[in-house]
Amino acid sequence: MSSAHIASDEESTPDASVTLDSFISELSPRQPATKRSGSTVDAANAPMSPVKRTKDALSFITLMVGEEATKKPPFKVDAVRALLGKVGELQESISDLLAANASLNGRLSESRAQNAGLVAQFAAVLSEREAACAAKIATALKSRPVTEVLHTSAPQTFANVTRVGRKKSRSRSRNTARQKSKSAARAKKLLESRSGPPEEAFVVTPTADKDVTACKNELWSVIKKHNSAPRIHSIVGKSGRLIIKPQDKETTDLLKKIGRSKTCNLTADTPLLPRLRFDHVDREIDPKELSDLVALQNLELNVDPVDAADFISPVFRTGPMEGVSASWVCSINPKYYSSLLALPIFVGLMRCQVTKFDRVTQCYRCFRFGHPVAYCKEVDAACVHCAKAGHLVADCPSASLPPRCANCGGSHSATDVLCSARTAFQANLLRRTDFGAPPSAPL
Ligand SMILES: [Zn+2]
Ligand SMILES: [Zn+2]
Ligand SMILES: [Zn+2]
User: Fold this and answer.
1) What is this model's ipTM?
2) How far does the centroid of ligand 1 lie from the alpha carbon of residue 433, in Å?
3) pLDDT 10s digits, 78-127
4) Is position 381 within any domain?
5) How many whole angstroms from 23 Cα to the centroid of ligand 2?
6) Do 259 and 324 belong to one domain?
7) What is the 367 CA–ligand 1 centroid distance (Å)?
8) Any transmembrane segments, and where (predicted)?
């Protein structure tokens, strides 16, 4: 801005402000009469505004013309002079008004230009600050661990809570390869466990007058008498029974003999029955009649009439709750296990799909294997993520830490399929299961 411009601005400002004030005071129709008269008294010494002068001159001219029109002859020299004087004043006022108007216009455009500059400046500062904020947020997000971000921003669902603890894999392919090899090892172990005859096991049941230690000592003395180097593994079961697992043929034969002699409270453990899952079973069919129906309708099975009523015993229903067909998990007479798997099985108007059922029952309160939640003895439910009791997974205080398995202590969820404890439990069950003779010839 040049100095000349500033000077002109300073000169025009007082004039313009006076003009503006006069405009407002003159044009405002709401001002009370008393105030207006007061303001005229105050402004007596001040220079008269062009508007007032114009109005005064106009009213004077009108009055004069009206008065002179009644006189004869009209318009004497004095009156004409006075009128011309007023007309001159009028012209002066008009030129003053024009000047004031021009000055106002100038000020208006100047302040508009100034405002535009300010708005542009404000927008520039705003966008600069926005960019700085975005950069700050980006660096903050980068510096915080991914797990924490997930934990705070994502809703507290089961998947999100458990995802937090999972390690971010450095190499997805390496991780997948490890999973695959684990899965293959598990499948191999389970396959080995189900092949061959069921594992021999014996049970020592303590009585009121003979506790488990007394039974154990008695058994040990009897065994030592007949075999100087027995190979045995024993476990004390949950129900207080002692489970004896002979590891070689001599010991097995000896234990069988002891069992038959009915000493030491020892009995041979009966092998477990294998299980099959029957899908597409008519929902209307009574599960008690399933065994008979299968025997009658599937003659290739060659079911002995003695076995017909119970060679298939439904254990529990599974699958969808509604629909035409249902799924049943049944324990099977080992004699018919292989045939049921190999042959097409028809029940009523449907062909059933028969598959192996080796799944381990897992309790959803304590996450241990071998019992459903209905038979759980624990009072407080355990957390599936950290294995501690007293809170649900959604409120887990260790959500940001890796998970801990309730069964093997490994860093995976207690429901992980590849858990080593699960595989061991399942393999143990399969070893104790009698799958009958394998099919004699491929069908
Ligand atoms: Zn339980
Ligand atoms: Zn927890
Ligand atoms: Zn585990």
Assistant:
1) 0.91
2) 23
3) 888 888 888 888 888 889 889 999 999 999 999 999 899 899 999 999 99
4) no
5) 79
6) no
7) 6
8) none
